[in-house]
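It is worth pausing here to work through a concrete case rather than discussing structure prediction in the abstract. The textbook approach is simple: state the sequence, then state the predicted structure, then interpret. We follow exactly that order.
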Amino acid sequence: MDKALEIKFQKNTKIFKKNVLVRVDLNVPVVKGKISDFTKIYSLRETLLNLIKNKNKIFLLSHFGRPRGVFKKELSLQNIINEIQNSLKLNKLYFVKDYFGKEIEDTIKLMHTGEVCLLENIRFHKEEEKNIESFAEKFSYNFDVYINDAFSASHRSHASIVGITKFLPSYAGLMFEKEINALNSILNKSNKPALAIIGGSKVSTKITILENLVKKLDYLVIAGGMANTFLASKSIDVGLSKVEEKYFNLIKNIENNALESGCRIILPTDVITSKSLGDKNSVNETLVEKIKKNHQAFDIGSQSCAEIIKLFSEVKTVLWNGPLGAFEYKPFDNSTKIISANLSLISKKKRINVVIGGGDTVSSINNLGVIEDFTYVSTSGGAFLEWLEGKELPGIYSLKHN
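Step two, the predicted structure:
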């Protein structure tokens, strides 16, 4: 069953002249007091414009960092309110520190319809992460409607994600809906054949994802450092590359399941190696069977990239999660550049559906300036990964059962 079927969506509901509480994700990276990536903030514009157009009073609720239930000045959202206001192109952005008493009540009276208020970091309250029901009930008192537009936080069973839905009419925001549709498109029969590129440094962090995807997709490309463990499980000598031997049996199970379901697993046939990440003089491109004993594999090679690109002409959907190599270090960013460029080209031409997710993956394509070219780019991190594992997120469950 489509995970989106039972959820009530903002776009299908006329929310007019209400006090609307919108759960967003403003947990953005900050460097030297300035926001370094506005992607999450920009993604909120469509939801806010819809609510503004319908003359609502809008209240943005978010976490920021991990204050563990106590006030920490450096984690106050007030520190970045000007940047949030400017990036959302708002003429005015109110700010409320205490949203249980007189301050929030006075602000609601002061605000005009179509105006927006930012609420202080919800994680300053210990009841948030403990999902205390009485806290959620008290919190809901000043609002008429709740909208969850923070898919990226919806893998958490927190008061502002699941508790609040017990006390207010609740809907999925426009951005939340886009995320659900993009992720569901990967498993949609009409969008097959489907291919997933799964990278990352460790098999241990992706085992459940791999177990789920081989049952759903037609092709599974294994890249990044985790490919070394897959190769080693086949008795290929990968030199000094890091290998998680205790996962060899699980890898065999994944491969057997792939055979049963008709999913073809693709491993690198060549790699780029070096004695260390910083030793550029020893960089070498070689077949996986010929990795030098004193070398480590830090990226997949050109032959492996060509095989992946060839598959793009055979599929309708591509999911990419996890870096293909140590992309932070040249020349081990080569495969990421090549695959990004090719995916960008075919996605722009609308030939295939391309969904990208995962912090490192998004960061790598952002640096290459092609992030706007793909069908959908998820910034959801943990929620994205849990969805790939086949789990129903608490945020989705609570919206269904509202």
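Step three, interpretation. The longest strand covers residues 19-23. Residues 121 and 237 are 50 Å apart (CA to CA).
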